[in-house]
Queue: 3 jobs
Job 1
Amino acid sequence: MVRLNVNGAVREVEAEPDTPLLWVLREQVGLTGTKYGCGIAQCGACTVHLDGAAVRSCSLPLSALTAEQKIVTIEGLSAHADHPVQKAWAALDVPQCGFCQSGMIMASAALLAQNPHPSESEIRAEITNICRCGTYNRVLAGIQLAAEGGQGGRG
């Protein structure tokens, strides 16, 4: 049995130590907003926050985590989908198919928490998530809109 702090609640889960956090979140905790994409930490569909930093949960084994670390999933980013990044995504209709968007939003929110007013080159360097639909220009615009709102650092 392992204790994890997920979205502000302590959860006890039972899984093998080498089980990726992604599968613990989806199967044991029941939070399916974090998506499986590639399984090798390249695409970013599985991005969550670990102590405020964006991490790819598909390659993070349960054994690497402690109960003191704070894990935030897309479900815990904001109570009413009102995080500045989520609002910008809706305002600009950023997603096409939407599969990668929870990871994109989590990566973007972590970036803005660390750097509330990133330049275009900083955004392009930091947001390495892959979108099959190619909505990268809308993602960039969404991050810029969230940053302009002055609320990007929340979450």
Job 2
Amino acid sequence: MRDHAIVRYRPISPDALAAELTERVNALTHRRRIAVAIDGAAGTGPLAEALIDPLKLLGRAALRVPAAGFLRPASLRFEHGKRNPDARYTDWLDLGGLRREVLDPLADDGSGEVLPALWDAERDRATRLPRVPVPDRGVVLVDGEFLLGAGLAFDFVVHLWLSPGALRRRVPDEWALPAFERYENEVDPSALADVVVRVDDPRHPAIYEP
């Protein structure tokens, strides 16, 4: 497991971070369509959104798919209570749905048609959204929590890392903190990511330098 207390980080502005990640993603040409994960405990959406327009300027169609659109129904998520950290970690995200509706279609022999969201968690019902065709060279950006360690087929992974103190400050659900601690200890997402970004202050990110 990487000891973040002793690793080196390179400060970078949010705009420069988006530009650098755009270049890295644009260089991926080994598959017809590319799946990118932006994994983190809080605030993954702004970075995913920041990559869309720069990728489009490079001729890469880009689609953001928030993992929050693939939560399981409330009857399954809250089977052990609404504030169960173990359930938050293992039972909330519909991994099968995310794989079936987003990642499998991006395979070279897949349909290329992605469902941008499967479940409306607020209304607790299916979204019934239409599928979105992803052309060749297209990029799908999946952002959310606990995306790594489950065998999801991503081509490029960005992990947004928070120090323990920042995690306590930035995760609004204090009861869920043990879930993120378990994820850090059991999965070690920093070791699985292509890029690790420290985001204790999202206005002043820093990239891990090996």
Job 3
Amino acid sequence: MTTSKPPRRGEPPPEISDEDLLTESLATPERFATIFDRYAPVVHGYLSRRVGVLADDLVSETFLLAFRGRTGYVPGRAPVRAWLFGIATNLVRRHARDEERRYRAFGRAAGHVEATTELGEVAGRVDAQALRDELAEALAALTDEDRDVLLLWTYAQLSYAEIAVALDIPVGTVRSRLHRGRGKVRDRLSDLWLTTEETA
């Protein structure tokens, strides 16, 4: 019979909630390291899909801002996960031009290199069976606001409520932006869909 080891002194028990952990980090800053361990990989994945090589720097900045701003976090108002993605998304907005160039580069390169997994994931979530270069162009053409909602839903897989918290907007606005963003992507790719359906 195996028994789990008790936590080391000063280390939080593994089942502690994110909210409790963040609250405890106010008195014991070392506790924040567990928040980083829990969420740095998924935040990095989200950022790398949006801004590429800038992701490493933005992950560091995301968690630095979260650490400094943790006194303003209100337990129960928002999941810690959504709060972190909100910080990350605000940082992406500072690099909106880099992100748009990145999608346009995907579009240009799609005919010359193997299709990327990340654009395929977006295609799956918006029911697109189109060429990835056209999808990249469609994403680049979205407004920053619509793209943020679409990619938080797609890449980070946040719920409507979590996206609302992350972006500090009403859930109804999340729904309308997601609907609009998906619609614009579909409109951009509609000719390709028809071609695919006709030849299927």
